[in-house]
């Protein structure tokens, strides 16, 4: 009995030695910042009273102020536009490349690895590269378009609202396509071959096999990729900050960059926290909707 208790205690200590570091990290680096951010959004915290260590509780006044500020609506619209155009291109392109690499041909594994390189490059580096490429004077984009006689004079890509938004969308698509490709390519390897063999015997065309077998079987993976892609794109900050800083004007200002500007440029920490909380709530809604869809899919599969 004593030996059993010692063994049980040893296993408990071993379990805690693995769990406690992760738990402490989650509490200090994730849970505490979230609750602290929520707390200061109900106070009037700026640079002056933050330094003094005192702040006044104002309730929902900060949220009232930011919702009355037109910049919040502009940044939310820009965030949705940016996310929509990125997903519209990066998901189909990633899917097409995944379908290509699902076939066996010489060099396919190596090419798949090369295509994943953009995802491994830090976003700040990607933003710096594309900012240089879209530079009106020395950027390769203008030189290429000029040499092909598509444009007659250099375009100030990052100086105008529409072209600046298009530039950051292109950069994010280049960054996001490999993520979509590798997840969908992995999902394609799990599809049962016997189903395709039976469809071929029954005379199904490649198009019919794609829409009636591949797409339905990939539906859970596609849903996961789209949800993750939406979350990663919706909360993007470093790409916008490096390439445009939210400008020109507020044409590329998104919720994350607006929260940063309120907090660390204007030093109004309460408004920055409130905007960050709005972003958090929107992403939580997306996450809960995804969980609902997954549970619904599981219930349909189980026949309940």
Concise synopsis of the structure shown:
With 304 residues, this protein is mostly helical. The chain has helices spanning 2-40, 47-52, 61-68, 70-101, 108-115, 117-120, 123-133, 140-147, 161-188, 193-201, 206-217, 219-234, 238-243, 255-264, 269-302, and strands spanning 43-44, 56-57. Strands 1-2 form a two-stranded antiparallel ribbon.
Description:
The chain is mainly α and 304 residues long. It has a single domain (66-302), classed as Orthogonal Bundle (MetI-like fold), CATH 1.10.3720.10. 76% of the residues lie in helices and 1% in strands. The protein has 15 helices and 2 strands. It has a two-stranded antiparallel sheet. Helix 4 (70-101) packs parallel to helix 9 (161-188), helix 7 (123-133) packs across helix 9 (161-188) and helix 9 packs antiparallel against helix 12. The chain is globular and about 75 Å long. The two termini are 46 Å apart.
Relevant terms:
304 residues, mainly alpha, MetI-like fold, two-stranded antiparallel ribbon, 76% helix
Element pattern in H and E: HEHEHHHHHHHHHHHHH
Q: Uncertain runs with pLDDT below 50, 5 residues or more?
A: none
Q: Which architecture does the CATH hierarchy give at level 2?
A: Orthogonal Bundle
* CATH top level label: Mainly Alpha
| Count of separate DSSP helical elements | 15
Rounded radius of gyration (Å): 25 Å
Q: Fraction of residues in helices?
A: over 70%
SSE class: mainly alpha
- According to CATH, the homologous superfamily is MetI-like
Overall pLDDT score: 89
Distance between termini? 46 Å
Bin the strand percentage.
under 5%
Extended strand count: 2
Strand order of the largest sheet: 1-2
Task: Choose one word for the global shape.
Answer: globular
- Enter the CATH topology name: MetI-like fold
Main sheet record: 2 strands, antiparallel
Structural domain count: 1
């Amino acid at each position: 009995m004593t030996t059993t208790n010692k063994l049980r205690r040893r296993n408990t200590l071993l379990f805690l030695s693995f769990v406690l570091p992760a738990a402490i990290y989650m509490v200090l680096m994730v849970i505490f910042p979230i609750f602290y951010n929520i707390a200061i959004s109900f106070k009037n915290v700026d640079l002056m009273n933050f330094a003094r260590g005192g702040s006044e509780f104002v309730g929902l006044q900060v949220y009232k102020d930011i919702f009355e500020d037109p910049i919040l609506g502009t940044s939310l619209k820009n965030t949705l536009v940016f996310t929509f155009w990125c997903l519209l291109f990066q998901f189909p392109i990633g899917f097409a490349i995944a379908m290509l690499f699902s076939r066996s041909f010489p060099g396919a594994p190596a090419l798949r690895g090369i295509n994943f390189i953009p995802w491994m490059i830090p976003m700040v580096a990607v933003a710096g590269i594309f900012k240089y490429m879209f530079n009106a004077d020395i950027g390769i984009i203008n030189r290429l378009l000029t040499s092909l006689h598509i444009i007659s004079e250099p375009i100030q890509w990052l100086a105008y609202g529409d072209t600046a938004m298009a530039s950051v969308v292109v950069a994010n698509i280049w960054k996001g396509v490999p993520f979509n490709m590798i997840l969908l390519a992995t999902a394609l390897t799990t599809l049962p071959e016997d189903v395709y063999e039976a469809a071929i015997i029954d005379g199904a065309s490649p198009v019919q096999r794609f829409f009636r077998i591949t797409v339905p079987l990939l539906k859970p993976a596609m849903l996961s990729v789209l949800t993750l892609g939406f979350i990663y794109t919706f909360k993007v900050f470093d790409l916008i900050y490096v390439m445009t800083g939210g400008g020109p004007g507020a044409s590329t200002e998104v919720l994350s960059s607006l929260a940063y500007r309120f907090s660390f440029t204007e030093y109004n920490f309460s408004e920055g926290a409130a905007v960050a909380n709005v972003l958090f709530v929107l992403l939580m809604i997306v996450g809960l909707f995804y969980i609902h869809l997954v549970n619904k899919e599981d219930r349909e599969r189980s026949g309940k």
